[in-house]
C-alpha cells in the first residue's frame, strides 16, 4: 500500500435540491517522499482533494489511508490531531498571524506539535535568517510564503500540503518558492503535495494527478522530474 | 441614487439584515433608556400632581396656635393670589378595637379643598357618621356599618373637641394628603397615628377652626413639583404672612374676651358639679342613717323579748324547784303517814289487848266476886279500873293518831294533786320559751345581716366620700390650671406652610428627584455605548466593502453618491431603532417606575405617562447624528484612496512591538497566543476602548446600584446605632414650673424601662454663613460631660472625637457642607423665638451626622449668647424596655410630656422609605446586565468576524476548538479585567455623585460601599462576560476552515 492511499472517494455537496458531486469515485496513491502536483482547471475538485487530504473536510464515501490509517473514520478531534501532527499547510495567501513576527509565526505551529524543529533553524533553511523579528506586513509576498512554509515544516509533518503556493506571487518569487518546496522534498524526503491550476508545473513533480470534473483524468509518473529552474511558464 | 444603486442598497440591507437589525436594536436600547428614564421622573410628578388636582389639595395651610376663625378666612380670601380658602378641623383620638388600640386622626370633611374620595360606601349624612381610612380599617378590623368609639387618651374630654364620641362608619375613603401609608405623629397613645376618620364639620364642637386650607390662583395648572409652582406659592405664602400678625392680634383680643366667658363657664361647670356631688352625698348619708335607726329599733325589740323570755325562764325554774320540794314533802308525809299508821295499829292492838284484859278481869270479877274478899275484890276492881284508864289513854292516843293520819293523808293528797298537775304546765311553758328563742334568733339574724349590709354601705360611703373629695379637689386644681393657662396664653402665632409640610408630598418629591438624578447620568452611558457600538459596526461594514467602494469609484460614481449608501444605511437603521426605542422607552419605563412606586404610594391611583417630545427628539437626533456620523467617518477614509488601491487587498496593519517587549525576561516567557493577545490589545484600539468602556460601565452601574443600598443602610445604621446612642426623644412642655419639672423628672425615673435620660434644650434656628443659610436645630445639653454618652461627637473621616467647649459650637457635616464652612469659620445663629438676638460664634469642629442638622453648644455658651439659661424641652432617653409602644404610652401619661419619639420606630420608618431606593438598585443591575451584554456581544462578534480568517488558519494548523477559544478569550479576559478596574474607579466616583444627587438637604447618606458589594459587582460582571463568551464559543466552533483558503478581501 502506498504511503497515502485515496480509494474511491466521493464528495457530494448538497445545495437545496441540487446535488453537486465535487469528487466522483476518485482514487490514487502517493508514495513517501514523492513530490506530487495535483493540477486541473477551476472547479475540477482540486481544493476538495486538498481539504480531504488535509483533514479539513470529510469524504461522503470512500477511504483515505495515511500511513496505513484510515483518516475517513476519524472524528472531529482526531482530525484536528491529524492536522496538528501529520500535516503541514502552505496557503495561497500565506495566512500569517499579522500580529506575530516571522519567528513567532513559526513558533505558533511548533507550540502545538509533538516533535518540532527549531524555529530559527527552519527559518534559516528557508532563507530568512535575517528577517526573524519582522512582522508579516514588513515582509514581501515571497518572504511571507517562506515563513508560511517554515511554519509548516517546523512541526515536522508527514505531509506538506500546498494550496496554490505561488498564486499570489510574481513569477520569479513563485519559482523560488517552488524550488524551496522541491528541495525540501528532495533533501528531507518530505512528501509534498502541491495543488495548482498551472499545468506548467507538472514536469517538476514525481507524480502528476490531473483532475477534471471530480475525477482523475490522468495520472502521470515522471521518471526524471525537471528541476524548477528549467521550467518556464 | 441611480436605479442600480437603489437596488443594491435594498439588497445590501436584505443581505446584511442581521447587521441592520443589530444597529436597530442597539439604538433602540440606548434611546429607550435615555428617553424612558428621563421621562420617568416627570411621569411620577405628573401622576401625583394630577391626583392632587382631582382632590384639590391645598397649596397652603395656615395653622394658628389659638385656632383660626371665619374672619381670618375672609381676610385671607382677600389676599391677591388666593383662589380659595376653607376652614377645617382635626384632632387626634384613641380608638380601641379587638385587634389594637389605634391613634386615630379625626379630620373634617371639606367642601372644596382637600376633598376626600369615597371608594366604597357613601359620604356621611349625619354628624355621627364618618368615612374611614382603609389603613384604619385594616388595622382595627372595623368595617362599614360598625360604630367606633373615641377616647382622648389624656385628661381632656372628647366633648371638648367633638360633639359625639361614637361614629358609624358609612364609607371607606382615601385622601391625596396621605399618598403613602404614613399617617404622621400624635401626642397620645404610642405617638404614631395609625389612620384617619373623616367626619362632617358639625361633628366638631370647637369654637374655631384648627386649620385653613388655601388654594392659590392658577397653581393647579402648574405641576406642583416645579419651581414655577414653588415660586408662585411662596409668593402667596409671604403675602399671607404679612397679615398674620394683625390677624393674630385680633384673635388674641377675641380670645381674651372669650376667656372670661370660658373661665366663668368652667367655674359654673365646676360649681354645678360640686353641687350635684354634695347633694348626692347628703342624700346617701340620710339614707344610711335612716336605715341605721330602723335597725336599732328592731334590735331593741329583740332585746326586750329576750328579757321576757329570761324572766319566764326564771319563774319556770322556781316552779320546778317548788315541785321538787313538794315531792320531797310528799315523800316525807308518806313516811310519816306510814309511821302514824303503824303507831295507830300498835295503839289499836294495845287498846284491844287492854279491852280484852278488862273484859276478862271483869268476867273473873263477876264470876269470882262471890268468892272473893272485898279486898280482893277491891283490888281486882282496882286493877280493872287501872286497865280501864290505860285503855282510855290508848283510845285518846288512837284518836289523835287517826286525826294525824287524816291530816297527813290530806296533805299527801294535796301534794299529789299538785305534783300530778305541774309537769304539763311546765312542758307547755318550755315549748313556749323555745319558740320564743327561735323567733328571736331569726329576728337577730335578720337584723345582723342588715347591719352588715349597712356597714358595707357605710364603708363604701366613706370611700366614695374620699373619692368625691379627691375628684372635687382635682377638678378644682384643673380649673385653676385652666384659668392659669388661659391667663398665661401668649399672643398666638400663625404657621403658614406649603405642600412640603405634607409628609407624603415631601417624600414623593424626594423619590422623584432620586429618579431624576439617575436619569441624569445613566442614560448617557447607554447612549454613548449605543453610539460607539454602531460606530464600530458601520466602520466594519465600510471596511468589508472596500473593494466595492473602489469599484464604484472606478465606475465614476461621486464620493457623495457612494457615501450616501452608508449614510442611509445608518440613517434608516438608526431612525427605525430610535423611533422604536423612544416610543417603547417613554411608554414602558416611566409606567414601570410609577407602577413600582405605587407599591409604596398606595393612594397614587393614577399613572400619567405623556410622551415627552423634547427627550424623544433629543434621543432621535443624537442617535442619528452619532451613527450617520460614524458612517461618514468610516467611509471618508476609503474615499480618499485611489480606486486601484481600494481594489487591492488592504495592506494588513503592521504589527508593532509593544512596550512590554522591552522587558526582556517577560516577553520570552510568553507563548505566541499571549504575545498575540497583548499585541492585539494595542492594535485594535477602538475595540479595546469600547470593551473596556462597556465593562467599566457595567461594573460602575453595579457598584453604584449596590453602593446606594450600602450607603443608605449604613446611614441609618450609623445614625441610629453609632451616633445616636440614646433610644428615644421625649419633648417636654418648656413652660413647666420648677416643681412641675421636678415632678416630671421623678415620674420619668419611676417609669419602668427608663434607664436614664439627659435634659437638653432644643430649638430651631436659622444658621447663616454669609452667602448661604439653612435651618438647623440648636441642641444644648444640661450637662456637657454626659452628652457624649448620648450622642457620639466625632468626625466621619478622621475619627477625631470632640467635646463641647465654651464659646464655640460643633456643627454637623451636611450643614457644614451646605453652608460651605469649616472648623474655625464663624456662623450666625438666629433662633425661632421672637426677640432673641442674632449671634455669631466660631465652629470648633464638624461632626458626623446623617439626618437633620444640629448645632451643639454648651449651656454656658448658650447663656452667654442669649442671655438666659437654656430651658428644658427635650429629654434624650436611654431605655432598657423591650416594648417601645408600652414605654412611650407610659411616658406620654406623665404630665408635661408632649411627645415621645422612639429612635427604633424612626429608624424603621426611614429604612422603609429607603427600601424604595431598591427600585433604583434593581434598575441599575438590569441596565448593567444589558449594557455588558450588548457591548461584549457586539464587540466579540465583530472581533470574531474580523479575525475569522486568522481563526480558521489556526484550526487548519491543528488547534483544537478550546485552544482557539482561549486564544480569543485571553484578550477578552484582559479587556474585561481592565474594564473592571476602571469600572471600580468610575463606580466610586459615580456613586458619590449619585448619593449627592439623591440625598436631600436634611439628609446625608454614607459614601460607603461594602466589600461584598464589590464582590457582587465583580462576580456579576464576570458572569455577564463569561455568558457572552459562552455564546461566542458557538460562533468560534462554526468557523469554517475553508475560510482560510479564500483570498483576502
Which descriptors apply to this entry?
heterodimer, A: 233 residues, alpha/beta, Rossmann fold, 6-stranded mixed β-sheet, 4-stranded antiparallel β-sheet, 29% helix, 28% strand, globular, B: 1049 residues, alpha+beta, Helix Hairpins, 5 domains, 6-stranded mixed β-barrel, 20 strands, elongated
Q: How would you describe what is shown here?
A:
The complex is a heterodimer of chains A (233) and B (1049). Chain A is an alpha/beta fold and 233 residues long. Chain A contains six helices and ten strands; from the N terminus they run E-E-E-H-E-E-H-E-H-H-H-E-H-E-E-E. In chain A, the strands form two sheets. Chain A has a six-stranded mixed β-sheet, with helices on both faces. Chain A has a four-stranded antiparallel β-sheet with strand order 2-1-4-5, covered by helices on one side. In chain A, helix 5 (141-154) packs parallel to helix 6 (171-188). The model of chain A has no long low-confidence stretch (mean pLDDT 87). By secondary structure, chain B is an alpha+beta fold. Chain B has five domains: 1-55 and 502-651, no CATH class; 92-196, no CATH class; 244-488, Orthogonal Bundle (Helix Hairpins), CATH 1.10.287.620; 684-721 and 905-1049, no CATH class; 768-858, Barwin-like endoglucanases. Chain B has 25 helices and 20 strands. Chain B has a six-stranded mixed β-barrel. In chain B, strands 13-14-18-15-17-16 form a six-stranded mixed β-barrel, surrounded by four helices. In chain B, strands 2-10-1-11 form a four-stranded antiparallel β-sheet, with helices on one face. In chain B, strand 13 (754-768) and strand 14 (773-781) form a beta hairpin. The radius of gyration of chain B is 59 Å and the shape is elongated. Classes of the chains: A alpha/beta (233), B alpha+beta (1049). The interface between A and B is large, with 39 and 33 residues.
